[in-house]
Amino acid sequence: MILKGFEDLKEFLNRPKNIVIVGHRNPDGDAIGSTLALKLYLDKKGHSCTVVVPNDYPDFLNWLPSSDTAYRFDLQNSQSQKAIGKSDIIFLLDFNALHRVGSDMQNTLEKYPNEFVLIDHHQQPDDFKYMYSDIEICSTCQMVYQFIEMNNDLNLVDADIATCLYTGIMTDTGSFRFRSTTSKTHRIIADLIDKGAENDRIHNNVYDENSYNKLLLLGQALSNLQILPNYRTAYITLTNDEKKRFDFQKGDTEGVVNYALSLKGIIFAAIFIEDSDQNLIKISFRSKGSFSVNKFARNHFEGGGHDNAAGGKSDLEMAKTITKFTSLLPEYQSELINSYEV
After folding, report:
1. What is the mean pLDDT of residues 16-25?
2. Phi-psi bin for 229: left (phi > 0), alpha (psi -120 to 50), beta?
3. b/e 113-148 (16+ beta carbons within 10 angstroms → b)
4. What is the pLDDT of residues 98-130, one digit of tens each?
């Protein structure tokens, strides 16, 4: 764990400040949940807070408390720039380096004259004056809860804050089934429920409000599933044409890679998704046991994340990306075969 400048930060925040809170590009449940929860908490402390996200987030998260107050840097650029320009400090949540916000927003943040606060659980974070980094914690939302706890302010956690935090912890732990889910995580979840988080409603809003086309897209993804038993690996592909055929909406592929990982005997899974907006292949990696997809993504696909969940990208077309991926597997065969989980 890295806890840097915490006492100085507490002193700095003793007086009302204008604060901007930023999440990563293509924000997920943990990014949105943590940024909104921190905003609601700091507002209660007398600060004036604005959440700025680089681009849109999935519809299944737009019901979260205060989500309608967040600015999108790509569409609400003038409002976002104004908020950043008048802020006294910026919190960076759920990402470890400025490039994770995308090049346009990165350029703005690199010119920012004041200090940043990093709260994040990803490996190999950049260095900032104020940091709370812990790769052992399952989610940034859990870290925000513990940040509030460090400030002796858990009494300020109301139903709205609890709902945001619960959502991020739930999504980043795969509904509490990933290895990073600890007994402390469960104790925090219990407290969030006690403080007003409605676990059944949150789960239904995130996972059980599927469109017909989303289910058809899932069917297409599963029909594209390929298994490489010699490497205990499975992967899924989705092309732009397939996405268009089923009226793809942001968030429709969330969690699809886990279907590949759920196969008996598989410990390494990937999904490759064409992205016409960015003209690249977006990749999500998942693993079980000791095989590090963070290392694999960093070494070969300009990505990273956690040991068992990471992302990457490829500038090659789909067929060449798959060829590159499969050609790498012999190099990792021993690690894949000897992973301690079946």
Report:
1. 97
2. alpha
3. eeebbbbbbbbebbebebbbbbbebbbbbbbbbbbb
4. 999 998 999 999 999 999 999 999 988 999 999
Q: Is 204 exposed, middle or buried (0-12, 13-18, 19+ CB in 10 A)?
A: exposed
Greatest extent of the chain over all pairs of C-alpha atoms, in Å: 60
Evaluate if pTM is beyond 0.85: yes
| CATH topology assigned to domain 213-337 | Diaminopimelate Epimerase; Chain A, domain 1 (3.10.310)
Supply angle C-alpha 196, 201, 207, rounded to 5. 135
Q: Which of 166, 160, 164 has the alpha carbon at shortest distance from 191?
A: 166
Which of 186, 151, 170, 165 has the alpha carbon at shortest distance from 37? 165
Domain 2-207 has CATH 3.90.1640.10: yes
Specify the residue for token string 């990165």. 106
Q: What value does the mean pLDDT take over residues 182-194?
A: 98
The percentage of the chain sitting over the pLDDT mark of 70, rounded to a whole number, equals: 99
Q: Which amino acid is at 38?
A: L
Reported as a single tens digit per residue, the pLDDT across 250-292 is 889 988 999 999 999 999 999 999 998 889 999 999 999 899 9
Q: What pLDDT does 318 receive?
A: 97
Which of left, alpha, beta for 152 (phi over 0: left; psi -120 to 50: alpha)? Answer: left
Q: Give the C-alpha separation, 103 to 13, whole Å.
A: 30
CATH 3.90.1640.10 location in the chain: 2-207
